Amino acid sequence: MASHQILNEKVIDYSLYLVTGRDLLPPGKSYLESLEQSLKGGVKIVQIREKSVDTAEFLKVARESQILCKKYKVPILINDRIDIALAMHADGVHLGQTDMPVSIARGLLPKGSIIGVSCNNVDEIKAAIKDRVDYVGIGAVWGTKTKELTSPIVSVRGVGEMLNHLNGTHIKAVAIGGIKATNLLRTLHGSVSTSGRALDGIAVVSDIVGSKDPLDASRRLCDIFREFRNALPTSVASHHPYTPDYIKASASRLLEDLKLINPLVQQITNIVVANQSANATLALGASPIMASAPEEMEDLSHVIGSLLVNFGTIKDKEGMLVGGHHANLNKKPVIFDPVGVGATRFRRAAADELLNTWQASVIKGNAGELAALAKSDEVKAKGVDSVGTGFADPGRFVKQLALTERCVVVMTGPTDWISDGVTVVRLDNGNKLLADITGSGCMVGTCVAVFCAAAASSAVQRFEGKLVSGDMLCGAVAGVLALTIASELAAARSDVRGTGTFLPALIDELYNLTAAKIQQYAKIEVVG
Ligand SMILES: Cc1ncc(COP(=O)(O)OP(=O)(O)O)c(N)n1
Ligand SMILES: Cc1nc(C(=O)O)sc1CCOP(=O)(O)O
């Protein structure tokens, strides 16, 4: 989908939208110098926003800015003030919810003027559609110091939901509020509708205006936007026409790769399972680091192969927030295991906060946990366990959740269901003793994290515009297969007489797992 629009024969490119803010200029930097550098760096549309000056000064600044914008063939819009826009023949206006109504502004402005409005929720989007505006400014997507916010933060997942409503319209959408080079890729990947509609641009004040080098700041934002546009349409899908044989071969190869790579797998997990998760990691040929302090997350994010965030006893939320942010920044897979998320309001709110802060590569849970995450009441949970027979159509459910959260979703149970939003895989391995020991679900999360680390580390092709390289669907399938096949082999051993002997045997079978065993025992079906 093109990020530009044709109005009055003019092509409007919203990809990098500068909103001015003279009060944020660094000491010694002149406003016009900063504006020209940002235009050189790739700003494609400018809005003059002056909140605390009189009319004469607003008009002067707008006219001086217009000369530069004309030089770079960039449209100029005026924030709030129709009179200023008319007086200087601006290309259009940006209106807030309490400014001049769109229908009246349209009557006053010359035909073909660009009209954009601020939207903070779905109702405002619906009104903007009725008003046939040219674009919407959705915000604030993150917290910002540039302006005191009077409406709730939308967050990236909220932007995606609002974009769903713009499907089938010609209205363009930019996000605004707290966007900077360090969160831009995350912002873009998170802000996509379930049908794949992405943002047409980003509107930025401080990351450009506050920079001593606005040319470089703008160029960096432009580059990230372009790389995102050039990347594959979903963040993790590799778009291979998956077949059971292909997946089996990939899972087997990943096991061999991981024994060579020996990735470091960081796990923020719960005390109940920490020991057995670390042992499972080692048994597969990876190295565990069970680190949860926020202060160490940045350093670790450079050296880890993947990060597992397991909710379990949820004491380390700050570490989880910071860890996921840095993992995204350094393009390391994040595996999210929202243990017992349906159990309390605190857990539900924490899951939302985490998923609004970083993007998971894989979300893994049982039917009850994933239902709670998706705010579906089709399946109920009791504590950390799922209750009842599960979803009527589990394949459809995981596919939809994968599209909404833009990641791979793994739903564990007697049958495991995995989807990247395009393909749905059904796995039928596993022994019922897994349900009788504590932490087997958490160990699945660990195994998925181990194999996703291998998938990311051994990825042949890297796309700058993706949050993570490598085939996360195959990584997730391989992780589930490893534990479930090992459970079948362990349960069949003559030295296993109950749950007490099953757990060490399970670790043994993970240790002795081979590519040939995966090929021999994996029960895989591609169902959609
Ligand atoms: C692109 C874009 N989106 C939103 C806004 C916010 O406008 P508004 O709601 O009018 O608030 P103020 O900017 O007037 O504080 C914007 N300016 N640009
Ligand atoms: C002007 C403005 N409008 C917002 C909204 O939410 O409508 S947020 C915002 C400020 C954006 O500045 P920065 O890029 O420095 O965070």
UniProtKB/TrEMBL annotation:
SUPFAM superfamilies named in the record = Ribokinase-like, Thiamin phosphate synthase
Gene3D superfamilies documented for this protein: 3.40.1190.20, Aldolase class I
The record, for InterPro entries, names: Aldolase_TIM, Hyethyz_kinase, Ribokinase-like, ThiamineP_synth_sf, ThiamineP_synth_TenI, TMP_synthase
Q: Which GO terms describe its cellular component?
A: cytoplasm
Q: What are the recorded Gene Ontology BP terms?
A: thiamine biosynthetic process; thiamine diphosphate biosynthetic process
Q: Which reaction does it catalyse?
A: 5-(2-hydroxyethyl)-4-methylthiazole + ATP = 4-methyl-5-(2-phosphooxyethyl)-thiazole + ADP + H(+); 4-methyl-5-(2-phosphooxyethyl)-thiazole + 4-amino-2-methyl-5-(diphosphooxymethyl)pyrimidine + H(+) = thiamine phosphate + diphosphate; 2-(2-carboxy-4-methylthiazol-5-yl)ethyl phosphate + 4-amino-2-methyl-5-(diphosphooxymethyl)pyrimidine + 2 H(+) = thiamine phosphate + CO2 + diphosphate; 2-[(2R,5Z)-2-carboxy-4-methylthiazol-5(2H)-ylidene]ethyl phosphate + 4-amino-2-methyl-5-(diphosphooxymethyl)pyrimidine + 2 H(+) = thiamine phosphate + CO2 + diphosphate
Which pathway is this protein engaged in? Answer: Cofactor biosynthesis; thiamine diphosphate biosynthesis; 4-methyl-5-(2-phosphoethyl)-thiazole from 5-(2-hydroxyethyl)-4-methylthiazole: step 1/1; Cofactor biosynthesis; thiamine diphosphate biosynthesis; thiamine phosphate from 4-amino-2-methyl-5-diphosphomethylpyrimidine and 4-methyl-5-(2-phosphoethyl)-thiazole: step 1/1
Keywords assigned: ATP-binding, Kinase, Magnesium, Metal-binding, Nucleotide-binding, Thiamine biosynthesis, Transferase
Q: Does Transferase show up as a keyword for this record?
A: yes
**A Pfam family that the UniProt record links to this protein:** HK
Gene Ontology molecular-function annotations: ATP binding; hydroxyethylthiazole kinase activity; magnesium ion binding; thiamine-phosphate diphosphorylase activity
Q: Where is the Thiamine phosphate synthase/TenI domain?
A: 16-208
Q: Which cofactor does it need?
A: Mg(2+)
Domain of life according to the entry: Eukaryota
Family the entry assigns: In the N-terminal section; belongs to the thiamine-phosphate synthase family. In the C-terminal section; belongs to the Thz kinase family.
The function of this protein is: Condenses 4-methyl-5-(beta-hydroxyethyl)thiazole monophosphate (THZ-P) and 2-methyl-4-amino-5-hydroxymethyl pyrimidine pyrophosphate (HMP-PP) to form thiamine monophosphate (TMP).
HAMAP family, per database record: Thz_kinase (MF_00228), TMP_synthase (MF_00097)
Per its record, how is this protein called by name?
A: TMP-TENI-domain-containing protein
